[in-house]
Specification:
Blueprint (H helix, E strand, L loop, with lengths): L5 E3 L11 E2 L5 E3 L6 E2 L8 H10 L12 E10 L6 E10 H5 L2 E2 L2 E5 L1
């Protein structure tokens, strides 16, 4: 803690709710989540993944497209020290992004 700006984990692709700035100034989250289709198995159509799991046989997997989401974290860091001042989890749906506007410009979509 305090030697790096952030420690950002990912493995399960399920965003955890433990984002925080540690006492020494390191931003931390166990799992930042996944950007992609969330009605899937790690981004692939569920049926093919389940068939492979059940039968053990290779199957052609196709990327899923349902419920796309962007999950990330936003870190505010001190420019001089590099230490984190704040961390915020982002979990945006397609509709959240489609309706977003640039800061200070209500007429301009992202």
């Amino acid at each position: 803690d305090g030697r790096v700006t952030a420690v950002i984990g990912t493995h399960t692709h399920v965003q955890t709710a433990d984002a925080r700035v540690l006492p020494g100034g390191t931003a931390y989250i166990t799992d930042v989540g996944m950007t992609g289709p969330h009605d899937s198995i790690i981004g692939m159509e569920r049926a093919a993944v389940l068939d492979r799991f059940v039968t053990g046989l290779p199957v052609k997997m196709e990327p899923a497209s349902d419920n796309p989401r962007l999950q990330a974290i936003l870190i505010d860091a001190d420019e001089r020290t590099g230490l984190a001042r704040a961390v915020e989890r982002l979990d945006w749906s397609h509709d959240d992004i489609a309706g977003a506007r640039r800061a200070g410009d209500d007429a301009q979509p992202l």
